[in-house]
Amino acid sequence: MVTEIRVPALPESVSDGVVACWHKRPGDTIRRDEALVDIETDKVVLEVPAPEDGVLDRILIEDGATVVADQVIAVIRPNGGAQAAVAAAPAREARQEMPAAAPANNKPAQDAAVLSPAVRKLVAEHDLDPRHIYGTGKGGRITKGDVLQHIEQQAPPAAPVAREQPGTPDLPQIEEDRPQKRVAMSRLRARIAERLLQVTQNTAMLTTFNEVNMEPVKTLRDRHREAFEKVHGVRLGYMSFFVRAAAEALKRHPDINASIDGDDIVYHGFCDIGVAISTDRGLVVPILRNAEYMSLAEIEAEILAFSNRAREGKLAIEDITGGTFTITNGGVFGSMLSTPILNPPQSAILGMHRIQDRPVAVNGEVVVRPVMYLALTYDHRIVDGKSAVTFLKTIVDLLEDPAAMLLDI
Fold first, then answer.
1. pLDDT tens across 295-334, in order?
2. pLDDT in tens, 112-123
3. Is-contact 205 379, C-beta < 8 A?
4. From CA 315, how far away is CA 62, in angstroms rounded?
5. Which candidate in 111, 380, 401, 408 is catalytic?
6. In angstroms, rounded to a whole number, what is the distance separating the alpha carbons of residues 212 and 88?
7. pTM of the model
8. What is the CATH classification number for the domain harbouring 66?
9. Cα 55 from chain centroid?
């Protein structure tokens, strides 16, 4: 008895997905719950596991094809059934090599007892192997519709047509030393592009800047880094300090921790802070729920878990949904200064940057301090300039006296 592999239920508001990668090929032995294929949507990558032990008999939908929920994409046979199918393959091939009733295109005819005349003609015209076509007819027989669907799914994208430009009838071809490569944009990348364009058109974004002396945080971190990692099992980074400072500042400035919903302003009584994480597929922003109650160790552990799942493509839809404020750190890539773009419907986003030793004036003397530039982009429709500036200054004050922040004084 064969088992159909179907596309799982897709997240809310997601209509379809793309087959990103098959981890198994036809003929491979598979174990129950073993990963078979990844389905990429515009929000998350869904991992489809094997429902039972067996052998992957057929892949009906190849990489790059668009699929919808509950669509059949592959077939699994029990080990015995797969062996029988393999044993029967030479016999089918021998029948196909018989010269009798060969069509005009000299392609071997299929057994009329298996395929109807219309199906046999269509298969021969397109040089298809019926063993790779999934039949939906009675007893698994292949219908004309099955063949047409198979052809449509396997058809490569149309190549771009070169057009002559007026006055230049003989355009030069692309030179071999100037290669170009055209690849389809991933669903996640396309969704990111769509949201970024949306937010630039639908919000009144403005950015304010400040600088923070990171020496107090750096000294505290260096002094307790080894003990922290030994006790909590995670590395003490800078992000946890910024999350704590942002959560405290959001409590003091509720207009920053708000969003617009239609004609209403929604003030959130909790701090769900998103932390931007870069992956091969694009930028994702998992959410630290109730960050105002989290310790530095809990923040670091949660960020590490999110990072691992994001790079493995295993973030769930609930991991990246919601959020009242976002922090992004361009400093890990060497950025000195940037203007981050809002993550709608949030009203503000904080940009961290590279820590750089710089000369600064302290009590009339020039000294060298590790300084970071901070950027706060905010939606001017809901946040006034004064609120944005004082919010960012609050974060600076908290980071320049981390002991008082951690002691809640």
1. 999 999 999 999 998 888 788 888 988 899 999 999 999 9
2. 446 777 778 788
3. yes
4. 23
5. 380
6. 73
7. 0.65
8. 2.40.50.100
9. 29
